[in-house]
Amino acid sequence: MQTFKTVFISAIFFFSFVAASYTQDFKLGVVDLQRVVEASNSGKKIKEEITKKGKKMEGDLSAKREEIENLKKKLEREAQVMSKDQRDTKEREVDIKIYDFKVLEKKYKEELFKFQNEKLDGMKKEIFEVVQELGKRGGYTLVIEKLGVLYSPDTVDITDELVKQYNAKY
Length: 170
Hints:
Elements: H1 2-23, E1 28-31, H2 33-39, H3 41-78, H4 84-138, E2 142-145, H5 159-169
Helix pairs in contact: 2-3, 2-5, 3-4, 4-5
């Protein structure tokens, strides 16, 4: 399905290029969105925020992990002198802590993923606005993302110009 989609989009671009080349001068721009995110001031700030939030979450998880390990060690040391009921109770405590840890870990992963997507989605909207302005001002017929492009000469890459204009605007 993905291959068909890629071939279909490529065919549309090809026929658009052919038709456009007969009617007017054709000017193509290629943008590497990943590089824009990594090189722009906003992108660096977002990456820093995500890293900070991730480290805080990892710190919380490390503390919980250490608590579980300590409980396991304590249970191993004291298991011989405990009654079966006490041992079962302590094992249940450890199992509950492990379950809670896994739930918290999953929650943190989802939270971080959602946080990252919200930040990047907002940034992408801003980038698309700047691409529109750059395309109109530069007289580009078509500006495409580099992700789906198999080859393009460096002369059509407008990523650096986009980063400059994006940083100036945001």
